[in-house]
Structure formats: C-alpha cells, structure tokens
Specification:
Blueprint (H helix, E strand, L loop, with lengths): L9 H4 L3 H17 L4 H15 L5 E8 L2 E9 L5 E3 L3 H9 L3 E3 L17 E8 L13 E9 L7 H17 L9 H6 L2
Antiparallel strand pairs: 1-2, 1-6, 2-3, 4-5, 5-6
Helix pairs in contact: 2-3, 2-5
Length: 190
C-alpha cells in the first residue's frame, strides 16, 4: 500500500496548527487504517509523528504490561525500559487517564530523565475502543503516547489538542490484541 507522507514539516507547511493536525490525522488514519498488526501500526505512527513535527527528540509508546509501562516502538535515543504506574510523566498520565503537558520537565516532581536533552513533554493515555464510548472511564488503558522536545514549553494548547486527537485515533484504530496485551487484566492492576 502506498501512503502519502509528503506533508512538509509544520514550520514549512504554511498551515495553522489546527489545520496541520487535520492533515496529520488524515495521514495517520490512512497509515494505520489498513494494517492489521499492532506493532506495525505503532512503529509507523511513531515514525510519522517524528517526521512531521519539528523540535522533537523522542516520540514513542509505553505499553501497559504486568501492571507497568514497558517501552514499545519509538524514535529517538534509547529509552527507559519500564516505568511504574504513577511515576514520572508517563506513569502519572496513565493513572490520571488524562493527557499531561509539561512545559519544563525539570520542574515536574518525580520526572524520569530518560534523555537529558528533553526539556518539555506531552503524554496521552491510550485506550481500547472509541473515545466517544458511552462510559469513557470504563475504557481499558493499554499504554501512553509520549512526545518529548529539547525546547521548553514546546506543546501549547493547540499542539496538546492535536496530539490528543492523534492518541484518540490510535486508541480506536490500533489492533491492540495483536500485541499480546491483556488490557482487562493490566487495567485491574492499576
């Protein structure tokens, strides 16, 4: 399958931030929509985000396995392999079940410094199923999308909204069961 990934990076595209994320969302839908393997979906999603967003030094996924977050596909320097729930930005977002934007990671209590170059971070939880389900709180957590930048305050409200939208697409479209995740069991360990 041929996927168009010829979007210019945001700073060259001449698009507003919301329009950029509309384009990126459409590319992500096309990229993951016809693939049936969750690992391939996450690897390509990660590459697409890293390619299209400027000023990032790490993009990837931590997957909920055995009651902790375990590194999945990513682009960037080698990462922390495991993160306990409730620890660092990723573990905090997983337990809170809400996206978190950190303008200055050094000011975040308990920040886990996997890459010393990271200065700001965005993390969104990933769930099984549709973001618009009748009871969003009942959706099983499967992991988090983690995006780091070497710039302070890289993720303003528009970028946070756009990235959260990408996380919603992934929650809905990734074939999580092909990754061997038992989200029901893992969720009960939170």
């Amino acid at each position: 399958m041929s996927i168009s990934t010829n979007l210019a990076p945001l700073h060259l595209a001449g698009l507003s931030v919301p329009d950029f994320y509309k384009e990126l969302s459409a590319s992500l839908e096309a990229l993951v929509g016809s693939e049936s393997d969750g690992l391939a979906q996450l690897a390509n999603a990660c590459a697409l985000i890293a390619q299209q967003l400027p000023h990032l030094n790490w993009v990837g996924f931590y997957l909920l396995k055995g009651g902790e977050l375990v590194v999945g596909p990513f682009q960037g320097n080698p990462a922390c392999t495991r993160i306990r729930l409730g620890k660092g930005v990723c573990g905090t977002a997983a337990v809170a079940r809400q996206p978190i934007v950190v303008d200055d990671v050094d000011a975040f209590p308990g920040h886990i410094a996997c890459d010393a170059a990271s200065k700001s971070e965005f993390v969104a939880p990933l769930f099984l199923g549709d973001a618009h389900s009748a009871d969003p709180a009942a959706r099983p957590l499967v992991g988090v999308l983690d995006v780091d930048s070497p710039l302070l305050a890289r993720f303003d409200a528009e970028h946070a909204s756009g990235l959260a939208g990408l996380a919603d697409i992934l929650s809905r479209r990734v074939h999580w069961k092909t990754l061997g995740l038992d989200a029901t069991r893992a969720e009960s360990e939170i």
